[in-house]
Amino acid sequence: MKKQKNNKKKNIEKRNIEKRNIEKRNIEEKNNEDLEELENAIYTYHKKELLAFFLEKTRIGHDKEEYKRFQSLLYKLDIECLEFAISRFSHIDIIHDHSKYVPAFIPLFAAYLTMFFNFYEKHWGALSFAAGTIAAIVWIIAVERKHRNQAISIMKIFEQVKERKVKDRSKD
């Protein structure tokens, strides 16, 4: 009777161990798939897809475990992939930085409007053109600034992961 109980307990323990091992393998497989998807996003996604992917992964509202899991996935990336991600987000930052040419563009636009108003007596057309142009420029800059801010925040995450990884390697 005792042997049967012991055998049942051992069988239950074996099944529990097998279940845990299967769960671990499933988690590892999912992590490998997620890591592959992450690398694929970094290397192949276009700018808008890339920003949308990382915005979804880092947006407010996920579980704490989801953030930790994503952070550990980032840490599993190799240094080359991290450097490539940093360079991609740095490029997005640079191409969406309007502070370099907008200040030069505004005086030229003002000079054009001044000449336009001086040559034509009917100012309503010029005024509506100017208002429409300014509204379009402001809208474009706002959209571009949003993309730039997203790229900067994601780039900071990659820089932190890379620094931590380099620091951990130097300890070894």
What can you tell me about this protein's structure?
- By secondary structure, this protein is mainly alpha-helical.
- The protein has one domain.
- The protein has 6 helices and no strands.
- The chain is elongated.
- It starts with a helix and ends with a helix.
The major β-sheet equals: none
- Would you report the number of β strands? 0
> What gyration radius follows from the Cα positions, in whole Å?
28 Å
Which stretches of 5+ consecutive residues score pLDDT under 50?
none
Question: How are the SSEs placed, and which strands pair?
Answer:
Layout lengths: L1 H43 L2 H12 L5 H13 L2 H17 L6 H18 L4 H48 L1
Helix pairs in contact: 2-6, 4-6
Brief description of this entry?
This protein is mostly helical and 172 residues long. It has helices at residues 2-44, 47-58, 64-76, 79-95, 102-119, 124-171.
Tags for this model:
single chain; 172 residues; 6 helices; elongated; mainly alpha
